[in-house]
Design a protein that fits this description.
This protein is α+β, with helices and mostly antiparallel strands. Helices cover 43% and strands 12% of the residues. The longest helix has 38 residues.
Length: 227
């Protein structure tokens, strides 16, 4: 995952022209990115009501499958789609399958999360954006080749030598930095590395520690640089 948003309007236009239905998996972005407007607190937009609203698209010809797990920490997903497709996607949509069957407590935590989002979600998103920018700016200062230009809180860090991945993972584990590994063939050889996912609960001290660890890591294991 690049940490960037798709060109949803272009994709939707092609699908509508060809009479196709566009399937949108927003398992990561739902709750974080949302509709744009003059009152937004950061470029993530307002309300966290997903990438379709963020890009100003309508739901005509679009099926949305999204999860509460990333932003709301709730084992719950939903499908927004015409009823004739419901039975098909109930058995084929990954985020929905991984989230079910949802226990009653998941409904409670999702409702509580929606309440928090209504009261102070935009402030939380603004703070998350600020922290993501701190990490991305630090990597750019190290000269690292990063794909993330939309400043989303998912940051992939590529290694100059894919063979270093195991040693890099062990180093980060010892430093107490939890990441997701991006190994070949899951990613192209020139993008082998690791993915950092920032959350609203990460403090500025956490970001300081992460950035310091990334600097020390770059001194031990060469990262893929720009150019």
């Amino acid at each position: 995952m690049s940490g960037n948003m798709p060109d949803l309007p272009a994709l939707a236009a092609v699908c509508r022209a060809e009479g196709a239905t566009l399937y949108v998996d927003d398992a990561h972005g739902f709750g974080v990115i949302g509709e744009r407007g003059p009152g937004e607190s950061c470029p993530y937009g307002m309300r966290g009501n997903c990438v379709v609203r963020h890009t100003g698209e309508s739901y005509d010809g679009i099926v949305l499958v999204a999860g509460f797990s990333k932003a709301y920490s709730s084992l719950l997903a939903f499908l927004a789609l015409p009823s004739e497709l419901k039975n098909r996607l109930k058995t084929a949509a990954g985020p929905y399958l991984y989230s079910g069957p949802s226990p009653t407590s998941s409904l409670a935590t999702a409702l509580a999360g929606l309440d928090v989002n209504e009261r102070r979600g935009d402030a939380i998103r603004a703070d998350l954006y600020r922290k993501a920018v701190r990490v991305l700016d630090h990597l750019e200062g190290l000269g690292v080749s990063i794909l993330n230009t939309d400043r989303l809180p998912i940051v992939e860090v590529p290694l100059a030598n894919p063979a270093d991945l195991d040693a890099v993972a062990a180093y980060l584990w010892r430093e107490g930095i939890y990441v997701t590994l991006a190994a070949y063939p899951l990613v192209p050889r020139d993008r082998v590395g690791f993915r950092i996912q920032l959350t609203a609960l990460n403090s500025d001290d956490d970001i300081d520690r992460l950035n310091g660890t990334l600097t020390r890591l770059s001194e031990r294991f060469p990262l893929r640089l720009k150019g």
